[in-house]
Specification:
This protein is 41% helix and 16% strand. It is α/β, with parallel strands linked by helices. It has a single domain, classed as Divalent-metal-dependent TIM barrel enzymes (TIM Barrel, Alpha-Beta Barrel). The strands form three sheets. Strands 1-2-3-4-6-8-9-12 form an eight-stranded parallel barrel, surrounded by four helices. It has a two-stranded antiparallel sheet with strand order 5-7.
């Protein structure tokens, strides 16, 4: 199993690797630019060189990047949708430079335009994205969401709907978030119900499209539609739910990434990773 966490790029992208090593990660997720700003500072050649060198030295890989939370290519506001598209394209280009294989994106919010309209718009922008990228090697991953507000992607069917409309099937996939699917109403705690949920995912989307799993417990109860991450075993999913994931042989090669709260010394990441590894039978 490949276990890791989302690590900060404060001070340069190379620092995420060092933080990953400190947190005992096999692999990490990171932002490739500031997550709360539209424009990105150019990647400095020195930082990029250090970044690749540290990957070699530490053995900590980068499984995926995560897009800025500002991006919403489902927005009915044309100006915001265009701004989002440009930012998404820039992040994909940066992933190509940094040789990051995946980029996770929350599908977006329809903000009142309606679910089908929003889903179709997402696919239109993704097709434009792949047309506009040269020699792209990055897979764009649609993240499962909790279903809060007008957010899209809270059912497997919605993600499959978008994927069906995307022309470049080789570079589109899914990131499953345990907290989000639990909050959206997919049972994962009881082993039988977990198997049923994973069968649903396989039937509707296909396990071959699952590239990353976000391992987050849930502060809110099952079906709450609320996205609130909790430390492993401290929320409503509990250790049993995570035991199902880490012992599912089909998921053996899929990076499992924490997105749980942490302090500067990363002790929470170290503890959560220790718990996850301890659940492997």
């Amino acid at each position: 199993m490949l276990f890791g966490a989302h690590e900060s790029i404060a001070g340069g992208v190379h620092n995420a690797i060092l933080r990953g090593q400190k947190a005992t990660c096999d692999t990490i997720q990171m932002f490739n630019k500031s997550n709360n700003q539209w424009r990105a500072a150019k990647l400095k050649p020195d930082d990029v060189e250090k970044y690749f060198r540290l990957i070699d030295e530490t053995g900590v890989t980068v499984a995926t990047s995560h897009t800025s939370y500002l991006i919403n290519i489902a927005s009915p506001n044309e100006e915001l949708a265009e701004k989002s598209y440009k930012s998404l394209k820039e992040e994909m280009e940066r992933c190509n430079i940094l040789k990051i294989p995946n980029l996770v994106m929350h599908p977006g919010s329809h903000v009142g335009s309606g679910e089908e309209v929003g889903l179709k718009q997402i696919a239109v922008y993704i097709n434009r994205l792949f047309d506009d990228l040269n020699n792209n090697t990055v897979t764009l991953l649609l993240e499962t969401t909790a279903g809060q507000g007008t957010n899209l992607g809270y059912t497997f069917e919605q993600l499959a709907f978008i994927i069906d409309l995307v022309d470049d099937k080789d570079h589109i996939g899914v990131c499953m978030d345990t907290c989000h699917i639990f909050a959206a109403g997919y049972p994962i705690v009881d082993p039988k119900e977990y198997k049923k949920t994973m069968k649903q995912f396989d039937d509707i989307i296909g396990l071959d499209r699952l590239n990353i799993i976000h391992m987050n417990d849930s502060k809110k109860e099952f079906g709450s539609k609320r996205d609130r991450h909790e430390h492993i075993g401290k929320g409503f999913i509990g250790l049993d739910g995570f035991r199902n994931f880490v012992n599912d042989r089909r998921l053996k090669k899929i990076p499992m990434i924490l997105e749980t709260p942490k302090s500067e010394d990363l002790k929470e990441d170290i503890e959560n990773l220790k718990i996850l590894r301890g659940l492997v039978e």
